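Hi support team,

I've been running sequence recovery on a batch of backbones for a student project. Most finish fine, but this one hangs at about 90% for roughly twenty minutes before it completes. I'm not sure whether the input is malformed or the queue is just slow. I've pasted the structure tokens below so you can try to reproduce it. Let me know if you need the job ID as well.

Thanks,
M.K.
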């Protein structure tokens, strides 16, 4: 049949559509009683959802694992096979409400949903192939018809397959991965857990470097100061040819004491001899001995103090250097103790990712939940239809007034 213009064609289509609607209404009377809006809002979406989930959607398998992040000092009665209420009691016994543990667990959770996790997972698994296995449907796989294949598209698409969260009461975190094959689901869950463990190890290494690094720098400074003090002692001894000026000073004091004692003895002898025999020929001898002792005492005093090369200035320098050496030694000992304490504290605060429940190998598909999703769409459509109907009725009533 030929048409003279597009308008004539449209008129003919409308006439045929009206005729078809009349024939359907004649054979199925209840069709005439269904409002068009109900068909558009409720019937069509529900029918499309039922067709997709009942006949098109591919079965998907779920692998789930649970883990906790805690410090070494908390790990007293942990067990990797505990789950449910057992895991909760374990967390209570461990006192897992620590802020550092919660922060570390949140960082691991953020990592598992990040681009870094996808990049790490791609290096060990063929993620793109796992997300587009034969038999997967076009609306759930990656890439979907309207998606690209770039890494950014992969990151956004992977969010449909992974769920990560933490129970605030038990502080147990969980990671759940869905895939089209059971082994793929478990492999990706295992890969995410291994990535989380590597993240925790990096956090430990960074914390250890920050905590111990400062102590090591302080120890290096103290060792350098102690070495400088020892070098100053060595140079002083080589220059002055004295091992210990203190010992030399003590020897000088003992010598002076002995000379003075001898002088006093001679002076006493001369005084007694002069009193008993003023003309004794021994008096000049005693006078010469007394003068010799006095000269020797004066020379010894001059050697000990009073001149630039005497022992007193050297002893002053030595004592100052000795004080510096003692201070340097004490600082070195304190730095060593501080470093050891920092290491022990860092080891005590080491974080561990401990698996409470290992990734399981599912033996049946759990997703999608076909009837539940269809029923959910139906309920939502009915609620939307009721709301729109009430809104339209209110507008009509307002116009009539």
């Amino acid at each position: 049949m030929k048409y003279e213009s597009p308008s004539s064609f449209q008129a003919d289509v409308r006439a045929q559509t009206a005729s078809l609607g009349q024939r359907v209404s004649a054979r199925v009377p209840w069709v005439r009683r269904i409002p068009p809006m109900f068909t558009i809002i409720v019937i069509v979406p529900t029918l499309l959802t039922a067709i997709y989930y009942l006949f098109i959607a591919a079965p998907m398998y779920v692998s789930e694992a649970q883990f906790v992040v805690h410090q070494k000092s908390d790990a007293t009665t942990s067990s990797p096979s505990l789950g449910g209420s057992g895991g909760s009691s374990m967390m209570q016994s461990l006192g897992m409400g620590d802020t550092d543990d919660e922060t570390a667990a949140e960082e691991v959770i953020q990592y598992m949903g990040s681009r870094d996790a996808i990049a790490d997972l791609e290096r060990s698994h063929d993620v793109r192939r796992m997300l587009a296995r034969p038999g997967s449907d076009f609306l759930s796989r990656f890439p979907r018809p309207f998606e690209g294949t770039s890494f950014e598209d992969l990151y956004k698409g992977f969010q449909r397959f992974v769920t990560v969260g933490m129970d605030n009461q038990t502080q147990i975190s969980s990671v759940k991965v869905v895939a089209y094959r059971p082994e793929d689901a478990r492999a990706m869950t295992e890969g995410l857990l291994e990535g989380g463990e590597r993240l925790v190890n990096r956090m430990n290494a960074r914390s250890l470097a920050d905590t111990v690094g400062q102590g090591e720098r302080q120890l290096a400074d103290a060792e350098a100061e102690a070495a400088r003090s020892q070098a100053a002692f060595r140079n002083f001894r080589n220059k002055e040819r004295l091992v210990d000026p203190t010992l030399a000073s003590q020897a000088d004091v003992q010598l002076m004491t002995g000379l003075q004692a001898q002088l006093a003895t001679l002076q006493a002898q001369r005084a007694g001899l002069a009193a008993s025999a003023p003309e004794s020929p021994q008096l000049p001898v005693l006078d010469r001995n007394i003068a010799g002792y006095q000269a020797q005492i004066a020379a010894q005093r001059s050697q000990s103090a009073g001149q630039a090369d005497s022992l007193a200035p050297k002893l002053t320098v030595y004592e100052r250097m000795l004080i510096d050496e003692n201070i340097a030694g004490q600082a070195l000992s304190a730095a060593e103790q501080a470093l050891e304490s920092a290491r022990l504290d860092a080891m005590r605060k080491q974080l561990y990712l401990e698996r409470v429940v290992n990734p399981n190998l599912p033996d049946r598909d759990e997703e999608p939940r076909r009837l539940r999703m269809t029923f959910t769409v139906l309920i939502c459509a009915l609620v939307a239809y009721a709301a729109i109907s009430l809104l339209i009725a209110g507008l009509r009533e307002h116009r009539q007034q």
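--
Follow-up from support: It reproduced on our side and the slowdown came from queue contention, not your input. Residues 219-346 form one domain. No action needed from you.
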